[in-house]
Amino acid sequence: MNHKHIKETLIEYCRKLYDRGLLPGIDGNISMRADDETVIITPSGVGKDIIRPGDLVTMTMSGEVVGGGKPSTEAPMHIAAYQKSPGTGAVIHMHSPYANSFAIARQPIDTKHAPFAHFHLGEAGYVEYRTPGGADFHEAVAACVEEGHIAIVLESHGTMVLGQDMPSAFAKADLLENYAKMLINAKILGGAYKLSDDQLHDIVSG
Q1: pTM for the full model?
Q2: pLDDT tens column, 57-114
Q3: How far apart are CA 194 and CA 204, in angstroms?
Q4: Angle formed by the axes of helices 75-84 and 135-146, to 10°?
């Protein structure tokens, strides 16, 4: 996929994520792997509803900016995800209302309450609070990705989703947000009940 097409895809999904309320205001960021050495990511401080191709930032895997504007301070988090997960082609970091409620409440999102969530998201990871943008934060995220998590709760911060491409990452981000809403509603109704390990095994293996 050439850089022009990647940028068009990023703009398209910035709009979709903004319209779904998953990237409100200027919050959150998304990126795509261009090749083994290059990542294209959204810039710092630009609303995803008005972002243009020229705003997007091209970076090397070593963190060097080689095109575009100013990258987000969270760009190293994206780069770490690509380095630790070779099959990942797109990363979405969002500050969405329902999934972020778990992050702010400092609670993990347990996917074992519904077969579809566990099947598509696996076991969600959890990173304890560290200053966003700091080296220790990016190292903690990298370790969580290396453990195999594709959906991660960032304590008191946000969430992160990995996909093999942007449509895949978007589907997982959308699912994570809606599943978080379901969990909150279930707790209001009296409780969210987990499936057993045997039941989950049957679903994943089926």
Answers
A1: 0.95
A2: 999 999 999 988 889 889 999 999 999 999 999 999 999 999 999 999 999 999 999 9
A3: 15
A4: 30
* Residue 182 exposed, middle or buried by CB count within 10 Å (0-12, 13-18, 19+): middle
CA angle 90, 95, 98 (to 5 degrees): 110
Spatial contact of 180 and 105, defined as CB atoms under 8 Å apart: no
* Strand (E) or helix (H) holding 3: helix 3-19
Pairing between β-strand 90-94 and β-strand 65-67 as defined by DSSP bridges: unpaired
Q: Give the C-alpha distances (Å, rounded to integers) separating 131 from 47, 101, 114, 155.
A: 22, 18, 32, 10
Residue 50 CB burial class (10 angstroms; 0-12, 13-18, ≥19): exposed
Alpha carbons 71 and 64: distance in angstroms, whole number: 10
Among the listed residues 179, 135, 171, 189, the one whose alpha carbon sits nearest the alpha carbon of residue 153: 179
